[in-house]
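Reviewers of the previous submission asked for a worked example of the structure-prediction workflow described in the proposal, so we include one complete record here. The input consisted solely of the amino acid sequence. No template or homolog information was supplied to the procedure at any stage.
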Amino acid sequence: MKIAFLTLGCKVNQYEADEIARTLRSRGHEVVTDLEPADCFVLSTCAVTNEAERKSRQMIAKLQKLNPNAKIFVCGCASQNNAKNFMDKPNVEVVVGTAGKNWLPDLIESASKGNYVVDPACDYEEFEENSDTQDTKTKRTRAYVKIQDGCNNFCSYCLIPYIRGRSRSRDLESIVVEVYRLAKTHHEIVLTGINLSDWGKDIDMNLCDLLSSLSTINARIRLSSFEMNVITPELIKVMTSMPNLCDHFHLSMQSACDNTLKAMNRKYTVAEFKKKVDMLRAAYPRCAITTDLIVGFPGETDEDFAETMSNVASIGFADMPLFPYSRREGTVASGMKDVDGETVKKRVAQISKLRDTLKKNFLEHEYGMIYEVLLEQEKGDYLVGHAKNFTKVYLPKGGIEPNTVVMARIEKPYLDGVKGEFVKVCEDE
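From that input alone, the workflow returned the following structure tokens.
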């Protein structure tokens, strides 16, 4: 059977979809990750914003056009949030939520229409292990390993704790086994989760324990988004002892105004956030620190936004994905008064300019540095990859193949990254 995957949303969704694909591939099915006609489709949905959930629903019609006779299996956050939005769609065989994805291979093979009722997220008390993680046939530069699920933060704008359930940690031994296995076929391993910072709290451990167990892995280790509260002198000591740890740190901030942070229930101040940034930069002078910002949160005044602009400029992020506030029914923020749409658009445009300036400043300071670069793909006359600090590097083609780790000297900013000069292939290659 030919099975195609369409995955929306975060890296956790991508990891979960990849694991389903591995299981199906091990059972002899042809699995493709590009959208093309197939016997059945697996759609992993997202619900982080209204727009993401709307796109998830729209994908059903797109898949139907690719093959009007194909069976569609839906999973993920949007189906967890509102399964009925998918159950009544033509060609949809089965709908599951954020848990129970391991059932999908069996459900696909049984080919029986179920439209299964999605279990409440509060029922998810333990980390759901994947049923099959033994396939290593797919050669990639980068692999994702899900180490945690759920969230206990209850930020006032966010549905995720209601959709994914409470925070649950994956067993340390299970993580180490998978990371060592993937390191044999991948150059970089990204540790991901819904709230990575919470890993270990429910099993009497913390990130120090995890990273210490991965310090000898023969592959880069990269942390996905995490919270500033996890940064301690102890954690930094462990991180700096790891030569394989990537010095790119994505710290979820959401606002740089204390009033707005309080309304968001983010549980820290801008001053506390800056202190943690300073700790990281003292340990990693060339590190890239990135963040997410929500623009136009309910109640955000002109003064609040001006404070965010000033603080963002002083912190000097390397990059900063921006998200206009999206009302999610059922959250605390959904009962607050929205900022009018035109004001939000103006603020997004204003802070976008600041973001671009900060990114340009960061890249310009890369000139003359020699970095280890993992080359990932061809783009025109260049090979494109990322340094450990996630700077995108373009190297002219010249006898080097993708999926190679090289040393490169940074020459100048170029497109959305920097142009580099090849120095040598890394010795462990």
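Residues 131-139 have pLDDT under 50 and may be disordered. We consider this example representative of the routine output the project will generate in years two and three.
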